Amino acid sequence: MAYECKHAEQVRDVKPSAKGCEECLANNGWWVHLRLCRTCGHVGCCDDSPSKHATAHFHATRHPVIEGYDPPEGWGWCYIDEIFLDLSDRKTPQDGPIPRFV
Q1: Mean pLDDT for all residues in the chain
Q2: CB neighbours of residue 12 within 10 Å
Q3: How would DSSP label each residue in 64-81?
Q4: Which end of the chain is flanked by fewer CB atoms within 10 Å, N or C?
């Protein structure tokens, strides 16, 4: 039997909170890739970025699912179940061009 994400039903359509990683933009930081919280719309940087703000957001809020967001890539990740989700039919559109730092 295939393992399924128990949190997939919690994925919401959200409005991105920023045009880049919220915390990096506020602190003159930089990122490699962006992740979008599919609970509240927080935009944070990935774990390959120095500050790992998307994962920090999960630890602070317990919002389980993020989306690959620069550009929207059609996949999600559940931090709790540690499984990828297919979001190709529910990609979040970008809110204008995403600045690049790397």
Answers
A1: 92
A2: 14
A3: -EEEEETTEEEEEEETTT
A4: N
